[in-house]
């Protein structure tokens, strides 16, 4: 038989199909049995009851039961859950245990430690709150109103009206326009305590005591120099207890901020202090922001005629207070190249050169105030040379050999409210200085003292080496100086002398002196105005105010106006140059003055005549009128000559014969003549027997 693959394959497929069908039947039987098991609700003995050892199944309502739990990991039943829910509901409904949102916000705003159910306020002064709803009322009093604003929740207390205490400004201070009265009184008391007990208060500082700390003896015999030097090296604040300390030359170093005597402290020269020499005894070198006070220097001026007791060199912002020097020496307090140094409340007597002296071109802003300087040997009580912005005020200077206060080559400085008494020369003198104000000072001499030996002025502004300009001498009082009261001398210009009182100047009757004197060729463009110059005797000075040439040239271009002069021997105002203006002075303001004119003729002679005259002087301008009565003309011819009160530079006038002819006249005033020539308008002689000629004219003084 032939082999056919297709036949073989077919046979095989049929055999396999029969086999698969037999297997399917068996498998289906097994699957049906499985489905029946799955659908059974009681498989393996399961039950929905709470039966031990049985599989738990849900009942028709989907519920199943378990036994009551006893362990922490047992299943909880509805009964147990309901108990918890009931407790939760009860807790949630408890309004005490829980807060509303608003109550929570309020609670968070309460600070730690706040009390529960506290009253509205605890206590204000002696008012105590008794309940949570208590209120406190703020009431106004006299001159006080209280207002409130509920919207802004503000309370305003306002002082109103004129009643005490009255309205006040937004701020108060002792010097303002709206002070608190009690504050003013309290401040005054504080200032008094400070002034009286300020020294004791400073004892609270760490002050080194030269006695207890460094072995100073203070008996005036033992040499205490080493103790002082050791104290200077140890600290900045040095205290000196009462005692007399023998000290050689020593230097106070710049590290010292306080050198102060407490009580009666005297320094006397040690054996090594050089005599007959312009040496410095105690030198404060380079101090800054420091104080030296409460010390007295006692030194013999015959032994130490040039000694400088306290030498301040290169010091800045230093106070020297209550430093006394009472028994002589050269210079009590000397400052060299210092700035912002104040010397005040010091008493100095019997020094041979100067009491207080500052020197140096670099010095500025130093103050000398409230000091007393007395002594017949002193050349100057107070002096300063070079520098700027010096203030000398409220000092008392007496019995000096030369000047009370003398400034040399200083600028922009003030000399004010000082008193000088019986100085040998000027009470106040400035030389080669500019922009210095001399104001409110009193310079006085008493009979039998300085006025008998002095040779110069009350107040002097003097230009020597350089021009002295732009100074003012105002509101001073000068009484009984030996020579002129106030002088502008030599190289001085653009200075002001105003509103001063000069009484009884030139007590020495010195020739050619005046109440106020200007002299020297370079004395020009100064203004003298508003001064009162009086000589009660009327004999001490020829002129109240005068320009004069002492051989160095004539002053010029000055202005002398609005002054009042009384009691002069010759004239109230004297000028030496026509360029000087004089006007509105007391003589100018006193109305017409009388004089007796001379009467003569240009040709022949007048037989018998009389005349009266009046004039008004305004500066160098003179208005005049005169009446001439000719009883007998004699041989008079040409022109009638009528005398003038001053020699004229130029002028003219007019007149009329009023008794005989009634003719009009001309008045001619020629240069350097002391008379006017009167003619009829046709150039004929104006007078005859019985004629009366009236003339009026104006001229400038020659």
Structural summary, described in words:
By secondary structure, this protein is mainly β. Among the domains are: 402-590, Pectate Lyase C-like, CATH 2.160.20.10; 593-701, Sandwich (Adenovirus Type 5 Fiber Protein (Receptor Binding Domain)). The protein contains 7 helices and 52 strands. It has an 18-stranded parallel beta sheet that branches. Strand 50 and strand 51 form a beta hairpin. The longest helix has 35 residues, at 5-39. The termini are far apart.
Topology:
Layout lengths: L4 H35 L38 H15 L8 H8 L14 E2 L2 E2 L15 E6 L4 E6 L21 H21 L6 E2 L9 E5 L1 H10 L2 E4 L2 E5 L2 E3 L5 E4 L3 E5 L10 E6 L2 E10 L10 E6 L2 E10 L5 E6 L5 E3 L2 E3 L4 E6 L7 E3 L2 E3 L5 E6 L5 E3 L2 E3 L4 E6 L2 E6 L2 E3 L6 E4 L2 E6 L2 E3 L5 H4 L5 E11 L2 E3 L2 E3 L6 E8 L2 E3 L2 E3 L10 E6 L7 E3 L2 E3 L8 E6 L10 E3 L2 E3 L4 E4 L6 E3 L2 H4 L3 E3 L3 E5 L4 E11 L2 E12 L4 E21 L6 E6 L3 E8 L10 E11 L1
Parallel strand pairs: 5-7, 6-8, 7-10, 8-11, 9-12, 10-13, 11-13, 12-14, 13-15, 14-16, 15-17, 16-19, 17-20, 18-21, 19-22, 20-23, 21-24, 22-25, 23-26, 24-27, 25-28, 26-29, 27-30, 28-31, 29-32, 30-33, 31-34, 32-35, 33-36, 34-37, 35-38, 36-39, 37-40, 38-41, 39-42, 40-43, 41-44
Antiparallel strand pairs: 1-2, 3-4, 45-47, 46-49, 47-48, 48-52, 49-50, 49-51, 49-52, 50-51
């Amino acid at each position: 038989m032939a082999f056919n693959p297709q036949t073989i394959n077919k046979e095989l497929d049929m055999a396999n199909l029969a086999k698969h069908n037999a297997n399917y039947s068996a498998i289906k039987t097994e699957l049906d049995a499985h489905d029946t098991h799955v659908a059974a609700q009681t498989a393996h003995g399961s039950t929905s009851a709470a039966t031990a050892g049985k599989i738990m199944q849900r009942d028709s309502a989907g519920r199943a039961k378990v036994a009551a739990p006893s362990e922490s990991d047992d299943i909880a039943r509805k009964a147990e859950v309901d108990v918890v829910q009931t407790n939760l509901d009860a807790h949630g409904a408890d309004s005490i245990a829980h807060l509303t949102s608003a109550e929570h916000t309020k609670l968070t705003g309460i600070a730690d430690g706040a009390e529960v159910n506290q009253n509205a306020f605890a206590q204000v002064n002696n008012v105590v709150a008794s309940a949570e709803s208590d209120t406190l009322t703020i009431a106004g009093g006299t001159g006080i109103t209280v207002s409130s604003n509920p919207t802004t929740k503000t309370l305003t207390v306002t002082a109103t009206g004129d009643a005490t205490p009255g309205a006040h400004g937004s701020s108060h201070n002792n010097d303002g326009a709206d002070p608190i009265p009690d504050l003013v009184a309290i401040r005054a008391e504080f200032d008094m305590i400070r002034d009286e007990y300020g020294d004791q208060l400073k004892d609270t500082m760490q002050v080194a005591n030269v006695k207890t700390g460094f072995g100073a003896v203070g008996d005036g015999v033992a040499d205490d120099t080493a103790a002082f030097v050791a104290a200077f090296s140890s600290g900045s604040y040095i205290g000196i207890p009462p005692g007399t300390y023998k000290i050689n030359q020593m230097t106070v170093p710049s590290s010292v901020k306080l050198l102060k005597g407490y009580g009666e402290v005297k320094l006397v020269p040690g054996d090594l202090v050089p005599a007959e020499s312009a040496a410095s005894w105690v030198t404060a070198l380079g101090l800054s922001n420091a104080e030296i006070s409460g010390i007295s220097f006692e030194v013999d001026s015959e032994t130490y005629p040039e000694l400088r007791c306290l030498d301040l060199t290169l010091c800045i912002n230093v106070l020297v207070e209550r430093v006394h020097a009472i028994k002589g020496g050269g210079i009590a307090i000397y400052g060299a190249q210092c700035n912002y140094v104040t010397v005040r409340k010091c008493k100095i007597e019997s020094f041979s050169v100067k009491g207080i002296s500052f020197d140096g071109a670099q010095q500025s802003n130093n103050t000398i105030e409230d000091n007393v300087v007395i002594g017949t040997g002193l050349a100057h009580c107070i002096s300063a040379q070079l520098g700027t912005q010096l203030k000398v005020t409220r000092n008392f200077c007496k019995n000096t050999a030369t000047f009370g206060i003398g400034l040399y080559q200083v600028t922009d400085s003030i000399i004010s409210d000082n008193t000088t008494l019986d100085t040998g020369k000027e009470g106040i003198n400035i030389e080669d200085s500019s922009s210095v104000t001399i104001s409110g000072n009193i310079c006085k001499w008493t009979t039998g003292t300085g006025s008998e030996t002095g040779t110069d002025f009350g107040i002097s502004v003097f230009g020597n080496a350089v021009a002295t300009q732009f100074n003012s001498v105002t509101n001073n009082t000068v009484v009984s100086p030996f020579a002129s009261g106030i002088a502008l001398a030599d190289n001085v210009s653009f200075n002001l002398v105003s509103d001063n009182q000069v009484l009884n100047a030139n007590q020495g009757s010195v020739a050619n002196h005046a109440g106020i004197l200007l002299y020297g060729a370079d004395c020009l463009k100064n203004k003298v105005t508003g001064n009162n110059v009086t000589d009660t005797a009327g004999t001490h000075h020829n002129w109240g105010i005068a320009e004069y040439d002492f051989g160095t040239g004539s002053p010029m271009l000055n202005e002398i106006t609005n002054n009042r002069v009384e009691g002069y021997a010759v004239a109230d105002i004297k000028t030496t140059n026509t360029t000087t203006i004089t006007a509105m002075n007391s003589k100018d303001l006193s109305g017409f003055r009388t004089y007796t004119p001379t009467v003569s003729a240009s040709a022949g002679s007048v037989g018998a005549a009389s005349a009266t005259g009046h004039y008004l002087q305004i500066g160098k301008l003179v208005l005049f009128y005169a009446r001439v009565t000719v009883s007998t003309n004699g041989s008079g011819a040409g022109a009638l000559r009528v005398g003038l009160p001053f020699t004229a530079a130029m002028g003219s006038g007019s007149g009329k014969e009023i008794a005989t002819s009634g003719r009009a006249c001309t008045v001619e005033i020629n240069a350097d003549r002391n008379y006017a020539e009167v003619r009829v308008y046709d150039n004929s002689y104006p007078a005859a027997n019985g004629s009366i000629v009236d003339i009026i004219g104006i001229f400038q003084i020659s």
